[in-house]
Design brief:
Blueprint (H helix, E strand, L loop, with lengths): L4 E2 L5 E2 L2 E4 L26 H16 L34 H5 L7 H4 L16 H8 L7 E4 L3 E7 L5 E7 L1 H5 L2 H14 L8 E7 L2 E7 L6 H5 L9 H21 L4 E2 L8 E3 L5 E3 L6 E2 L9 E2 L3 E4 L5 H6 L1 E2 L1 H17 L15 H10 L15 H17 L10 H18 L2
Antiparallel strand pairs: 1-2, 3-14, 4-5, 5-6, 6-8, 7-8, 9-12, 10-11, 13-15
Helix pairs in contact: 1-11, 8-10, 8-13, 10-12, 12-13
The chain binds adenosine-5'-triphosphate (ATP).
Adenosine-5'-triphosphate binds next to strand 4, strand 6 and strand 8.
Length: 425
C-alpha cells in the first residue's frame, strides 16, 4: 500500500511504501531486499566507525527516487480556519459534496439519520451526526491536510473542543484498511502522553472510517523546517522538539501495557503547538510490539514505513523492533540540524541521501558545513550540532544492537540542551 502524496505538479507520488511491493509498478521496489553490507571498516573511533557503517548501508540500500519527495498539503495547517466563527447551519444538506453524493446507497450519506443518538460519556465511539456537526459536513474550508490515510479536517465538538478529524479515503478502505484502522485506534486509545497526539475516538460505520484526535494548531515540523510561516526554528527549539519526540517514543516503547512501535517517525508526523512543543502523530502504522514477557520477536509479513526513514535491518530481515523507531529518529535528528529532507533527489549525487552526506562531513571534521544555512554558525551551535550528530550516528547504526534505546536518546539530548542553555546564561 502506498501513501499518496502530491508532488509539486499535483500528481500523486508514493513516498511511503510496503515491501513486498504491490503489483503496481513503482520505483520504490528498488529499496527492496538487496542485502546491504554491514561490514564496516574497523575503526578505533566508534563514532567514525558507525559513520562508515551507516554510509555503507545507505549506499547499499537506497536508490533515491527520480522525483524529490513531495511535500504536499492540499492546504496548510498554518492556514487554520476561521470557519468556526461562522454560525452557518451544520446540518446543511446544501453542501455541494453532500449534494453530489446524495444518491449514494451506502455510507454516511445514507446513514446520517441512523446515528443521531448521543454518545455515552467517556465513550470513544462517535456518531455520524457528531462528525458531521464537528466538520460542518466535511466542509472543504475545514480541510487542513491530506495524507496516506485520507483527508484531515479541523473540527469542533459540541463542548467546544477543537479536534482533527481524519477521514479515511475510500480507496484505502477498499485496500483492506480495516486492519490499519483498528491498529491506529487500538494504539491511540491506550496511550496518553503530553507529547503524543491524544485520541478522542473514532467512527466506524458502513464505508466510513473516521478518527477523532487532538487538534494541534501550529503545523508540522517539516513545515517549520521549511519556514512556512516565515520564522526560522532556532536550534534551541529544534532540540526541544527532539527531546519531546524522544520522550514520546520512550513512552510508547517502555511505559504502555505492551511496547508500541510507531513505525513511521518522520517530520510530517510531528505536530507543533503554539509554544513550539512537539506532539507525535499518526499511528497508522503502529503495531503492538512483541510482548516482552513472551520474548517473541515481531516478524512482519510486510515492511512498512516512509522512504528515507526506514531501518535497513528491518528491510533486510522483516524483523520489527523498537530499534527501527530509533533508526528513524536518527534520520530525524539529521533532518533537524540540516533542515533537509532525508532524501533530496534534486541535489547532486553525493548530497542526495542527507544522512550519508551529513555523516561524511561529520567524520571529515567539517560538521559545521551541514548546519541548516538558516542557523547561525556560532560556536554554541557548532558544539551542539556535533553532539547531536554523534547521537544520530549511533541511532542509525546498521546493526540494531548498536543503537541506543530511546530513553538514552532523551537523556543525551537533555544534556546537550542543558549545555546549550548554559552558554546563553
Ligand atoms: N492532529 C492534527 N492536528 C492538526 N493538523 C493535523 C493533525 N493531524 C494531521 N494534521 C494535518 O494533516 C496533514 C495530513 O496528516 P496525516 O497524518 O493524514 O498524513 P501525513 O502524516 O502527512 O502523511 P502520511 O499519512 O502519508 O504519512 C498533516 O501534515 C497536518 O498538516
Amino acid at each position: 500500500m502506498y501513501g499518496h502524496r502530491k508532488n509539486s505538479s499535483g500528481d500523486p507520488t508514493p513516498d511511503r511504501f510496503t515491501y513486498p511491493p504491490s503489483p503496481s509498478p513503482s520505483s520504490y521496489s528498488t529499496y527492496s531486499s538487496k542485502p546491504s553490507s554491514d561490514k564496516s571498516t574497523p575503526s578505533r573511533n566508534p563514532v567514525k566507525a558507525a559513520a562508515r557503517s551507516v554510509a555503507g548501508v545507505f549506499v547499499a540500500c537506497f536508490t533515491p527516487p527520480e522525483e524529490e519527495d513531495t511535500h504536499h498539503k492540499s492546504s496548510s495547517a498554518f492556514g487554520g480556519s476561521d470557519a468556526f466563527s461562522s454560525t452557518s447551519d451544520v446540518s446543511g444538506a446544501s453542501d455541494s459534496t453532500d449534494g453530489k453524493r446524495r444518491g449514494a446507497p451506502r455510507g454516511i450519506y445514507a446513514t446520517r439519520n441512523d446515528s443521531t443518538h448521543m454518545r455515552e460519556p467517556g465513550s470513544i465511539k462517535f456518531t455520524m451526526a457528531e462528525i458531521h456537526k464537528a466538520t460542518k459536513n466535511f466542509s472543504p474550508a475545514l480541510k487542513v491536510g491530506q495524507g496516506g490515510f485520507g483527508t484531515v479536517y479541523k473540527g469542533q465538538l459540541q463542548d467546544g473542543t477543537l479536534v482533527a478529524i481524519k477521514r479515511a479515503k475510500k480507496s484505502m478502505y477498499d485496500k483492506n484498511l480495516g486492519g490499519e484502522f483498528r491498529s491506529e485506534i487500538q494504539a491511540l486509545s491506550t496511550v496518553e502522553h503530553l507529547n503524543l497526539v491524544k485520541c478522542y475516538g473514532y467512527l466506524e460505520q458502513g464505508d466510513e472510517r473516521v478518527i477523532v484526535v487532538e487538534y494541534v494548531p501550529n503545523g508540522t515540523l517539516r513545515e517549520h523546517l521549511e519556514c512556512f510561516n516565515g520564522n526560522v526554528l532556532s536550534l534551541a527549539s529544534r532540540l526541544d522538539v527532539a527531546i519531546d519526540v524522544a520522550h514520546a517514543i520512550t513512552y510508547l516503547h517502555t511505559y504502555t501495557d505492551h511496547p508500541i512501535i510507531h513505525r513511521d517517525i518522520k517530520s510530517s508526523n510531528i505536530l507543533l503547538t503554539e509554544k513550539l512543543r512537539a506532539k507525535v502523530a499518526d499511528f497508522g502504522f503502529a503495531r503492538l510490539a512483541a510482548d516482552a514477557e513472551s520474548g517473541q520477536t515481531h516478524v512482519s509479513t510486510q515492511v512498512k514505513g516512509t522512504a528515507g526513514y526506514l531501518d535497513p535491518e528491518y528491510l533486510r530481515t522483516y524483523q520489527l523492533t523498537e530499534k527501527s523507531d530509533v533508526y528513524s529518529f536518527g534520520i530525524l535528528l539529521v533532518e533537524l540540524v540540516t533542515g533537509r529532507r532525508p532524501i533530496e533527489a534534486k541535489r547532486e549525487l553525493k548530497e542526495r541521501v542527507t544522512a550519508r552526506w551529513a555523516m561524511k562531513k561529520f567524520t571529515d571534521g567539517d560538521a559545521i558545513s551541514i548546519l541548516d544555512p538558516r542557523l547561525e554558525k556560532s560556536d554554541a551551535n557548532g558544539s551542539a550540532l556535533e553532539k547531536i550528530l554523534e547521537l544520530a550516528l549511533q541511532c542509525v547504526a546498521s546493526h540494531r544492537q548498536n543503537r541506543p534505546i530511546m530513553k538514552r536518546c532523551a537523556e543525551v539530548l537533555w544534556n546537550i540542551r542543558k549545555d546549550y542553555n548554559e552558554v546563553f546564561v
